[in-house]
């Protein structure tokens, strides 16, 4: 019984160690020549398993959206090499300057 409990604790600790992952993104969002205003940014993990995260950087904005009832949504995938197995960010992904005035592939509109 004690041996079974010991192995269960080892398996649980290994599983928890695999779950702890982090990612960091730096960069600048613009609308033409101006800093992007009224923006919501979300990081999503599209992988629900214990495996390495499949991180998506989503930007909800009204740049070049004259009516503004719904926001434009841009979904960009963060390269897997920037996901690290630690509780703190070890490797930052530099997204550079992203001009949201451009129409991005697979861009959509979402009413929040």
Which descriptors apply to this entry?
112 residues; Immunoglobulin-like; 4-stranded antiparallel β-sheet; 3-stranded mixed β-sheet; 37% strand; elongated
Which of globular, elongated, flat, extended, rod-shaped describes the shape?
elongated
Strand order of the largest sheet: 3-4-5-7
**Number of DSSP strand runs:** 7
CATH third-level topology: Immunoglobulin-like
Main sheet characteristics: 4 strands, antiparallel
Integer-rounded radius of gyration = 19 Å
User: Mean pLDDT, nearest integer?
Assistant: 81
Protein name: Transthyretin-like family protein
GO cellular component, one term: cell surface
Keywords: Signal
Organism: Mesorhabditis belari
Question: What report would you give on this structure?
Answer:
InterPro entries: Transthyretin-like. Residues 1-17 form the signal peptide. This is Transthyretin-like family protein. Keywords: Signal. With 112 residues, the protein is α+β, with helices and mostly antiparallel strands. It has a single domain (2-110), classed as Immunoglobulin-like. Helix content is 16%, strand content 37%. The protein contains 1 helix and 7 strands. The chain has one helix at residues 2-19, and strands spanning 24-31, 34-35, 40-45, 55-61, 71-77, 92-99, 108-110. The strands form 2 sheets. It has a 4-stranded antiparallel beta sheet with strand order 3-4-5-7, with no helix packed on it. A 3-stranded mixed beta sheet has the order 2-1-6, with no helix packed on it. Strand 1 and strand 2 form a beta hairpin. The chain starts with a helix and ends with a strand.
């Amino acid at each position: 019984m004690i041996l079974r409990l010991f192995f269960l604790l080892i398996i649980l600790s290994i599983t928890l160690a695999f779950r702890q992952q982090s990612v960091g993104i730096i960069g600048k969002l613009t609308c033409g020549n101006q800093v992007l205003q009224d923006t919501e940014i979300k990081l999503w993990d599209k992988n629900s398993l214990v495996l390495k995260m499949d991180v998506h950087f989503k930007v909800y904005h009204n740049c070049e959206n004259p009516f503004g009832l719904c926001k434009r949504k841009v979904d960009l995938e963060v390269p897997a090499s920037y996901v690290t197995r630690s509780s703190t960010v070890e490797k930052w992904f530099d997204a550079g300057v992203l001009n949201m005035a451009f129409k991005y592939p697979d861009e959509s509109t979402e009413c929040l």
